[in-house]
Amino acid sequence: MGVMMQAFYWNCPREENREMAWWKEVARRVPELKQAGFTSLWLPPASKAANIGGMSMGYDVYDYFDLGKYDQKGSIPTWYGTEEELRGVLRTLHDHGMKGYADIILNHNNGADEQEYNPIIGTMRWTRFRPASGRFPRDWTHFHPSPYEAADPSRFGDMPDLCHINPRVSAGILEYARWLVEDVGYDGFRYDFVKGFSGWIIRAIHDMEYKRGGEPVTIFGVGECWDDDFSIDRWLDSVNPWSPHQAGAFDFPLRYRLKDLCDSYGYSLRNLVAGGTLMEDRPFEAVTFVDNHDFRDEQPEIANDKMLAYAVILTHEGYPCVYWKDYYRYGLGLTGEASGIEALVRVHEGYAGGNTTTLHLDDTLYVMEREGFNRQPGLVFVLNNGREWQKKWVRTRWNETTLHPRAWRGKDSLGEPRQQTTGSEGWVEVEAPPRGYTVYVP
Q1: Which of 240, 255, 313, 389 allows an S-S link to 288, with CB 3.0 to 4.6 Å?
Q2: Residue 128, Cβ density class (10 Å: 0-12 exposed, 13-18 middle, ≥19 buried)
Q3: Could you read off the pLDDT of 153-195 as tens digits, one per residue?
Q4: Can you give the CATH number for the domain in which 362 is found?
């Protein structure tokens, strides 16, 4: 499926001195990301936000159809820039054979223009929206509780939640999705906080047929179902039956195991690859990741040896997503070096095809093989959670073939793994540095 990058992090315009200019920064980086092997970017919420207390990341959406074009909520551009600059990012992505995904917020709104009386609960609420775009205006009947539905699965703070059963709401959302794909140029969606609303509206988005420039567009979608594997399973089952465009989900269960691997010394590798993750149980719907913009404060980022986590997601099944902050701000991209994310992206794109077979597994050493598919011949991945170099004889699918170390990294070790040649029956001795990994390719 390729490799996605989350092309933002919390407060990135301020942190990188790119306020009102983030779209320009992303566009500038596209050629080098293409060269590194990335195939898509997940872009931040582009619609005009409420901007209460200052410029916003966009998760408090006010006007869906204002992408930085109208003078409202304190500025014409969003915190990321103007609509034309955003369209320029998407054109640049397409020129480089890449895709761009919109982060869309379908659960809640903020920044209403005035209060209205809600007769169902007998109180005044901020629910009257008169967006400058003139598209998708809303009143109290567009939100829970409404004449159509009293409540929804979950609230998001104090912001009013959209009532999708109201036909004017569902029509507005479907018009918005079609506009983003066919007019603006997006290739799919990241759905924010999907636990807050029923999955049928996403199924409706994916059931539509899209065209751009007269040609059909196949969209991709991924939901933020921040929960355990059982809840994610139920959500995927609710949105994907009979849909021509399947949705994926972020693999939160795997992410927490990756944090334990990196931040908890002595973590057993048997737990890492046990069932209960999308990567293991539903790999074709798994979007694997290491960190994202929501892991901060009470939900901290991974603090130690983060490259172990990237080595896992970029060698295993699923659709891996790399975090801009890790790649650029924390300097883990390491262009041209075997120990960085870029080397793992190249491994993923060039070799990581086919089913995964475990060749060895114990508490501190894990060896697996990707069997190869089409132009991706496969690989051998060695993960060492011990304090010393470890070696292991394993039987691979390759006979009398030289396996070259293409990506590796270890903690407090400058040594490099050696290339190895398999015997006539596929046996070979592989190795990995302490608290590190090696990826061998034929």
Answers
A1: 313
A2: middle
A3: 556 567 999 999 999 999 999 999 999 999 999 999 999 999 9
A4: 2.60.40.1180
